[in-house]
Amino acid sequence: MTYINKPKLAHPNAAVNELGYTRRYYEGAVSTLCAGCGHDSISSAIIQAFFELSVEPHRVAKLSGIGCSSKTPTYFLGSSHGLNSVHGRMPSVLTGANLANRDLLYLGVSGDGDSASIGLGQFAHALRRGVNMLYVVENNGVYGLTKGQFSATADSGSKSKRGVVNTDSSIDLVGLALQLGATFVARSFSGDKTQLVPLIKAAIEHKGAAFIDVVSPCVAFNNHAGSTKSYDYVREHNEVVNRLDFMPLRKEITADYEPGKVENIVQHDGSVIRLHKVDDDYDPYDRIAAMNYLGDHAAKGEVVTGLIYLDREPQDLHANLGTVTAPLNSLNEKELCPGVATLEAINESLR
Amino acid sequence: MKPTDIGNPDYFHKVVDCQWACPAHTPVPEYIRLIAAGRYGDAYMVNWNSNVFPGILGRTCDRPCEPACRRGRVEDEPVAICRLKRVAADYKGDISARLPAPAKIKNGKRIACIGAGPASLTVARDLAPLGYEVVVFDGEDRAGGMIRSQIPKFRLPEEVIDEEVGYILNLGVDYRGGQWIDSLKSVLDQKFDAVFVGTGAPRGRDLDIPGRQEAAKHIKIGIDWLSSVAFGHVTKIGKRVIVLGGGNTAMDCCRSSMRLGGKEVKVVVRSGFEEMKASPWEKEDATHEGIPILNFMVPKTFEHKKGRLTGMTFEKVRAEYDDKGRRKLVPTGEPDELIECDDVLIAVGQENSFPWIERDIGMEFGEWDMPVVSKDTLQSSIPNVFFGGDAAFGPENIIWAVAHGHDAAISIDRYLNDEDIEVRPAPGVTVSSQKMGIHEWSYDNDISNDVRYKVPLKDLKLALSNIKVEVELGFDQTLALAEAERCLNCDIQTIFTDKLCIECDACVDICPVDCLNFTPNGEEDDLRTRLNAPAPELDQDLYVSGILPTERVMVKDENVCLHCGLCAERCPTGAWDMQKHLLDLQQAGPGCRTPGPRVRAA
After folding, report:
1. Which fold has domain B12-97+461-484?
2. What is the value of ipTM here, to two decimals?
3. DSSP-assigned beta bridge partners for residue B344
4. What dotted CATH number matches B205-348?
5. pLDDT above 80 (res A342)
6. Which chain B residue shows the shortest CA-CA distance from A220?
7. Predicted structure pTM score
8. In chain A, which among 202-231 make CB contacts under 8 A with chain B?
């Protein structure tokens, strides 16, 4: 950690977004994580994404559980809402918050311990229900806060810093998310912001359960030879299937790309995801094929990154429940208790 | 781009903008840290070694360092470097034991310095302790030159001059006051081994317009008048005074007038207020004392009645610029303005004047009848005659005179040791890590958010009542600490070791000014367009690493780096380190000479 606060002085010609804010407006407190932690890069990518999208920070709720990763919401979006909840229980807290106020953007931040061990059940149900959120797992494969034991996402056969080989099967959160019905599934790497930032932006604008698994090396306990979550390993085995550009508003598309290599995906709100295919055969709309592709490459020790699956017609929890469009927390007594006559009418309709 | 050669002393020297901009290259951040630590004596000695007159310059320097200060690029105003220098002088205590002693053994070489201003005194200080017999000639009884004669005492008290000039004369310098030199030949005839000419630019320009002769009694040349005031020959002036000119001399003239009986003192300049040559702070000081500065007025006539000056008329003009950006002042067509006055001070520029140098002794004169002098060695066309200060290349300021003095002293020392004076000694460079613990540094890297502190002033009424009362009170120790903390420590350099980098981006993420980048390499023009923050300042270098494992390079734009060290604190592998880059400029003496057997210069 650092003893001083980040100086207030900033670049005099720093870019400003549509709201007139600089990137630094989206920062939080200075990080107390270990120097070089991949999580800090993810925080930085989140800051960049919200800055570029010109989101007003007070429109965001950031929720987390417990762990190194769950500390990070303190380090970005200092003017947003949020809290650290109970270990592994972020998904239900987020679901509740989302039900109460559907107008906010929900960002769930979790780690491999918080989501794949203690909170695995919570993780599964939030995705199943299609809560409109971005769920980010900062995945380093170890329990960093307790000195580097294997976590549930550590690959079988990988080595701990002390040389112990992991014999347990690993949980692939991307695979689970696909199976559980998440409508936006991606994987990225903390060391590749050019890939990560557009993914985060696209996921924020996605109206459904979006999940991003970000491989994030733990410099203190999982960045050695034999680890499959180290900077070197991920860089050597990164199987990029596609790259995105994300354009919030529909703009005239003028750039000249090789046919078949680029696809523009227009979303409901008019924003456009421009997909640059790296692997021509990869089809991000076929969930079953995506699961097979992941399995094949995992068997070869490769880490598949990019936009892995996108449902172009997502449904979210509010749509499934048929809730009113106004946030529930804005409904007052008059609307919630419409009176005896209305009650009578409802009762009558049920007779 | 090729990886940056950080072994070149100039690379990091340039990053220390203040030091780079200073003609004498005083290590500014080094002494500011000493001031912050309360080590005023040490801070004074750092200054004294480099710029010879810390107390004098701390009040009067033209401060080329301040416009260069990096703080001025990330915030509104630079660090008050000049006034911090004064703090070192004010609180240093007794430093006499730390000054060099007069040479016990003389080396038998005799040097004449003509004029006892800052250039000559610097030469004397550098050479006398080495054993040279230095003789300084000046027309005045007391040494100091323009420092004593032209700077008003309300800006620079006499005691400060006496003290710092005294430190030099006490080094065994033979000062011959009251000896006005009117012939260079006569000095050369005395068989000095080398002669240094530091006679300044002693002639103030006149203004030859109608009425000048008739009203001459109440029209004075600014620098001559200041000198008469300084030596007590003039003690009053009329109630209504016009000062012509927009330079620092004009500012000294108008402010002095206010203290000698002037009630309606006006400065009138041909140019616009913005283009005036005076330093912004001197204009500010004059304005603070209630002196109006009237611009775009060209003097036309001196008005007089019965041989007595009554006023001046001015033509009103405006500035027009041609396509090449050259300014032309064109009349606005408005009627001329008459300003009534009792006295006029003309401060429209200074010139060199060498009537005392014989034209048949082999000295070559060039443009504007100035002697031909080498910029690097300060040698004239007579090999053992050197020039410095305003005498060398026209009017500049004290700090340039000091820089010339050092360079001329090196030339003289090498010349008299039979060495090629074109070969200049390289600076000594000390680079040392400032790491004290995992996240602890030997300097205070927590950047102060304070804005520039104002120097407390004497009550205006009291200040105007006596020309010898110093206007500025100087920072006290509390203010000095607060102002010193504003310094960004630009000499604590960010050193990058590419072999250690794992490209985790931690440094990029933490950098408060977005000056770090990992990106594919390219030519400079191209790289500058691809960085995280705009990098349009071409005179601010890019620090480029070797190729990293991902085929990218680290590129740092030095422009607005705060030297906060957070990149190094967040680096897990120590690829970044904060290292102090201390430049030790050689001065005359054995260190400036070439080691090894001597080869007589051709």
Report:
1. Fumarate Reductase Iron-sulfur Protein; Chain B, domain 2 (1.10.1060)
2. 0.89
3. B219, B242
4. 3.50.50.60
5. yes
6. B572
7. 0.90
8. 217, 219, 223, 231
